[in-house]
Amino acid sequence: MKGQVFPRELRLRARAVALGQESPDLLVRDVTVLNVHTGTLLPHFHIATAGPLVAGLSRDEFSPGSQTVVLEGRGRYAIPGFIDAHAHLDEGVVTVPEFLRHALLGGTTAYVTDTAEVGNAFGCRGVIWFLESVMDQPAHVFALVSPMVPGDPQLLPGHRMQPEEVAELLRRAEVVGLGESYWTRVVRDGGDLLTLYSLAEETGKVAEGHGAGARKECLAALACCGIGSCHEAISPEEVKDRLSLGLFTIVREGSVRRDLEGVAALAGEDFDFRYLGLGTDGVNPVDLLRYGVMEYVVQKAIDLGFDPVRAVQMATINNATHFGLERYVGSISPGRYADFLLVEDLHHVGRPQAVVAKGRLVAQDGRLLAPPRRHRFPEEAHRALDFSRRFLASELTITAPPGTRRVRVRIVHQRNDVVTEEQTLDVPSQKGRLTLPPGINLGLAVSTLRPAKWSAGLISGWNLRAGACASSAVWDAPQVAGVGASAEELALAVNRVGEMGGGVAVCEGNQIVAELPLPIGGIISDLSVEEVAARMKAIDLHLRRLGYPYANPFLALRVMGYVGVPRLRLTACGLVRVGSLGGEPVPLML
Amino acid sequence: MKGQVFPRELRLRARAVALGQESPDLLVRDVTVLNVHTGTLLPHFHIATAGPLVAGLSRDEFSPGSQTVVLEGRGRYAIPGFIDAHAHLDEGVVTVPEFLRHALLGGTTAYVTDTAEVGNAFGCRGVIWFLESVMDQPAHVFALVSPMVPGDPQLLPGHRMQPEEVAELLRRAEVVGLGESYWTRVVRDGGDLLTLYSLAEETGKVAEGHGAGARKECLAALACCGIGSCHEAISPEEVKDRLSLGLFTIVREGSVRRDLEGVAALAGEDFDFRYLGLGTDGVNPVDLLRYGVMEYVVQKAIDLGFDPVRAVQMATINNATHFGLERYVGSISPGRYADFLLVEDLHHVGRPQAVVAKGRLVAQDGRLLAPPRRHRFPEEAHRALDFSRRFLASELTITAPPGTRRVRVRIVHQRNDVVTEEQTLDVPSQKGRLTLPPGINLGLAVSTLRPAKWSAGLISGWNLRAGACASSAVWDAPQVAGVGASAEELALAVNRVGEMGGGVAVCEGNQIVAELPLPIGGIISDLSVEEVAARMKAIDLHLRRLGYPYANPFLALRVMGYVGVPRLRLTACGLVRVGSLGGEPVPLML
Predict the structure, then answer these.
(1) Mean of the pLDDT values across residues B330-342?
(2) C-beta atoms surrounding B162 within 10 Å
(3) Is A45 helix (H, G, I), strand (E, B) or coil?
């Protein structure tokens, strides 16, 4: 938090509490404190706070005053509040206050979140709006400014954040660095990204990496450019590759991927774990209600055999140190924020009895005591994108060159929720129009910036027998992505998203059967986390019933135009083939 | 190094070398790299540099070009260059280039140095002159700006650095924080120091602590004020106290004190050592030639039973991380400075076969290959202090109240080279003048700022049978300190220091028998390190021959007016009694 300063009066008061000259605001008596700096336990300690800070930490008693809130620890373990090293609150589908309302119960008291999607939706002002929404919350939300707005300016429509805007954002105290950079772009970059990394370096802030599938020399190249981390290792070998190069390695366990099990063999190894962190890479509302946030990740690590102390270190001091935040969060120490949990034993950290954040008891026994500050995005955010384009079914047919009877086309084949393949197929054409062969659905991507570019494509692997869906909750660019069994249904779903001013819609025949409005930039709902989760479940359920064969069609729509993973992606500017050195546009027809 | 930025061209070139597109500048083949992030070994690795940076690090070969310098590692260990976490190059008695000329041979490639003494001598401009002397050297010199100029403004004469000056210095890239603050002052501070700590916090920089003998609640109070470290723990318990409070703990092994042996019981303990660092707290020219710098400290730690990997981590990545420098130094990783040593085995690191710093082979087999840049302090630095005051022996007698025949006086009793006691004694007076009782010497402290305040006192424990000495190489304030067996000799020694424009002088009878000119602020010599060491030895030898009973009278003079250690100190403003909460002036006579 370079640039943040604790007020002098606060420090003076903390000093007075530490010295026993004044009484603490909160006194937690008789706990076994986990010192994450040393990985050792401090039994029968007392924690005395002053405002949001830990002030005293000692085996000696502190005298409570008449205003002191006293919490009897009764020998429970006090562990630092968890830090999500790679959050995506910018695309959590719910607002940050709604997210925190549930997330705080489990003890994730700090988040380092990317802001790429608010950047993609609104440009720089969107990041500022987002930052306003996270201020003065009962948890810490540290932001990363994305150097990838849009994900790839050569391939995707979108706002383009200027270096001066990025520099301005980097100077803010709550901005701790630059968000993830795809290694393919870093390795090719002519200098634009390096300019941004220099700005981060100048302000003493980090630049995060995204090295999915990168070979070692490419990872070294990332480090040479100033990138300090990667959260894309999925095997023990990949983790070690990154550590050998001095890249802080965040093991991901969240809604998009769950990598802990794949790297669990590391648990038994005897090396220094300081450069290993934990993060979610985003938790959607369904998973938030079902699992929680970092408490689930840490518990899973423990269940997979990681030493509990190490698991907690990976979710606290290691993450904090990587981001240069260890003077503020990540440990229970005087002069740092009082963020900690009380748990019955170190092997069971998933349901803390008490959560203290910024010196306040924010949750106890699963009940929220300190509700997040409600926040409304400005009216402008509800009107910033252009959802006015309506489609006729007749527009969504694909024209073939005159006189041809069969055309060879590229098909986006869905391999799982995230990865696609490039397939080719001979498709019959009639009167200059392609006929959809059996098993092939129609895809559509529409930019929500003026002029509203759009592009249609052919999709296999979704297996929609009927119906269609469309979503503006997509990554990397302001677009609506849709898939349908027929042009009529696809047009209906896409048009419904437009009518809502952003959102997700599923239709069957001429009926909308499930929908989720996302009026804030087409990516964020103003509904409660419970309501959003219920609607997301309904959307997934309907689409699986209509034929989608994997778990999470909501996610599949989200990544339809995402050029960060292989292999053929449908964007508003057309098809993009994602290879080992980045994406290139390819025509629909061969 | 917040604020420093590697040039974009350098990063692009490093990337090209990492990717094998360009050939390295230096290629070190087949070494076992110690990865200090994980504490593991990477056998048969190759290190490829680009300019000052490590670019490639791999088991795969790099192709040398026609310009590539190739160093065959032949399986030797490559360990990161050592970092002295608490150096005092500001008071090294020799210039930084002279210091480095020898220090580089042993592989200390980075120094975090206080600048208090150049601040005391010259104020802010002195710090800037010093920073100019450390720029563009073959080693990294990171500076700390002292919040203690002078050591205690209520007790000592001196320049006073203004908050704006400190702020200006903190903004410089090579300044990594504020130098040590005595805990006694921090605990009492009304807010002046906290203002400076806020400036450090605002710029994301550290504030170092000095918690000698502080109880735990006082250490917690330091942390509450924003102090992040202590280098004054002298026992395993004191180390643990500091670690339990989240204070980075620098174990000191240098010319002023050697604490490694006292804390060696920690070596066998199984805890996370990341918050433990190593530093010298200053190495004088005699010790520099005899032992070296950090290579001696690390070797001693290993010899005392510390695991070699841990010992190296304590001298590299741990120190680097504490100062927020881990993106630049402290490990052998792509994108960081290429600072490393080749050693035959991990248990013997004290005589590296090769030293690479900033990508250059700076030393090999004890021979220096890259001489430091010579630097001359500006003329102004030679004339900044006022050494014009000459003393007559008659001035150096102590007057007693008229009519008294015996007076009860305070005596500064030297317990060892550093610590003094307060003793009292009934001393006969004759014609209003005190008679020196047997075994009691005369002390003098003279400020070198106008107006030249001075104060005389009585010293026991030096046991000078004859002769006198005086020195301007003192801590915490611009003063000359002297001790003599007679007023005549004391006047001669002090006057000689004045004639030299600063320095150290020893006389016997009316002969100067040893001297060391220190024309730069009275604290720094322009002679070679070998010459200075020889003269320092001669000074100590003469004084021990004259009766001084401990090892290092040069040091005893240095701390005569130093209010950071117990108990009775003689300053130009009079006697100061140093208690558990700081110093207070006390009169000579009771």
Answers:
(1) 98
(2) 11
(3) strand
Per residue in A424-470, pLDDT tens? 999 999 888 888 899 999 999 999 998 889 999 999 999 999 999 99
Please provide the size of chain B in residues: 590
pLDDT confidence of residue B580: 80
Interface subset of A 461-480, CB within 8 angstroms of B: none
- Contact across the interface for B226 and A53, Cβ inside 8 Å: no
pTM: 0.96
Q: Distance between CA A106 and CA B248 in Å, rounded?
A: 30
The pLDDT tens digits of the residues spanning B377-410 come to 999 999 899 999 999 999 998 988 888 899 999 9
pLDDT tens digits for A466-477?
999 999 999 999
Q: Which residues contact A558 (CB under 8 A, 6 or more apart)?
A: A471, A473, A474, A475, A481
Name the pairing type of β-strands A440-447 and A479-484.
antiparallel
DSSP classification of residue B115:
-
* CB atoms near residue B551 (< 10 Å): 12
Q: For residue B3, what pLDDT is reported? A: 64
List chain A residues with CB under 8 Å of B17: 224
Whether B563 and B578 have beta carbons less than 8 Å apart is answered as yes
Task: Give every CB contact of residue A253 below 8 A, 6+ residues apart in sequence.
Answer: A259, A260, A278, A279, A280, A296, A297, A300, A301
DSSP codes joined into one string, B370-435: SPPPP----HHHHHSS-------GGGGSPBPPTT-SEEEEEEEEE-SSS-EEEEEEEEEEETTEEP
Q: How close is the nearest chain B Cα to the Cα of A256, in Å?
A: 28
**Do B19 and A218 make contact, defined as CB atoms within 8 angstroms?**
yes
Tell me the three state secondary structure of residue B219.
helix
A225/B50 CB distance under 8 A? no
The CA-based dihedral angle spanning residues B78, B84, B90, B95, taken in that order and rounded to the nearest 10 degrees? -20
Which 99-118 residues of chain B touch chain A by CB within 8 A? none
Residues of B in contact with A170 (CB under 8 A): none
| Mean pLDDT to the nearest integer, B109-118 | 97
Please work out, in degrees rounded to the nearest 5, the angle formed at the alpha carbon of residue B218 by the alpha carbons of B212 and B224.
Answer: 115
The proportion of chain A whose per-residue pLDDT surpasses 70, expressed as a percent, equals: 99
Q: What are phi and psi of B202, to 5 degrees?
A: -60, -35
Q: Which residues make Cβ contacts (< 8 Å) with residue B127, sequence separation at least 6?
A: B115, B118, B119, B143, B145, B169
Averaged pLDDT of chain A: 95
pLDDT of the residue at B127: 97
* Encoded tokens for B297: 């400290």
pLDDT for res B541: 97
Q: Are A477 and A120 in contact (CB under 8 A)?
A: yes
The SS3 call for residue A303 is helix
Q: In chain B, which among 31-60 make CB contacts under 8 A with chain A?
A: 35, 37-40, 42, 50, 53, 55-58, 60
**Do the chains contact at B203 and A35, CB–CB below 8 Å?**
no
How many whole angstroms separate alpha carbon A349 and alpha carbon A314? 14
Query: Minimal CA–CA distance to A96: which of A84, A390, A203, B379?
Result: A84
Check residue A2 and give its pLDDT: 58
CB atoms within 10 A of CB B9: 11
Which residue has 């950079």 as its token pair? A181
Q: What is the number of other CB atoms lying within 10 angstroms of the CB of residue A394? A: 10
**What is the mean pLDDT of the segment spanning B323-337?**
97
pLDDT in tens, B432-478: 888 889 999 999 999 999 888 999 999 999 999 999 999 999 999 99
Contact A172/B at CB under 8 A? no
Q: What is the pLDDT of residues A204-259, one digit of tens each?
A: 999 999 999 899 999 999 999 999 999 999 999 999 999 999 999 999 999 999 99
